[in-house]
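Write out structure tokens for Restriction endonuclease.
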Amino acid sequence: MPRDRAEWIAAGVILAVVVLALVQFGSPIAGALLRAWYVLPPMAVGVGVTLVVRWQRRAATERARAVRLASLRLTLEELDALDPTDFELAVRDLMARDGIAARHVGQQGDQAADVIGKDTIGRTFVAQCKHTTSGGRVTSRVMYEVNGTAGPAHGADIAVVVTNGTFTRDARAWGDRHRVYWIDRDRLRQWAEDGASLQRTLRLPARSRPRWPASEPTA
């Protein structure tokens, strides 16, 4: 039997749909089922309870994930040991920890975006991830590519390049001038290991929603 109001509502809706379908099609089978109407309520209740239980399990799974993400901490050693795809997924989870509804989009032809998300005030974040196992350095070319696609292709308000390595001096300077944010190894430690939010790590204003600047020629 239904245990609460939600289960009764679900059972009632399903029962109504079944009855309407039977009346609509009016087949001999439908007539037989209508004559045996007393079996329909238990059937509807059973289906309704199943749906409600599935919804409750899904909600519980989401709550458990939210609790796990709220306390997520990743050391640089753990991040170094990941492959590039798992590094992108780690960035997604860190963004989710900080209240950004993030999804992984990285694949071939991703137009310089591996993770895209939206925060609670409506800002769209686009992250390009660069994982290295050899202390690699991100160059200005990556910053140019992100600047050229983040706004036009992905509707970004905030674009950020994340690496477990470092950036060249020119890449950092170019990013600062053109508002392509960057997270190098030191900033990654603050964000992933120490638990500072992405917004704090990037020193973003708490409320304002920046408009993505028009792309400029890179030549």
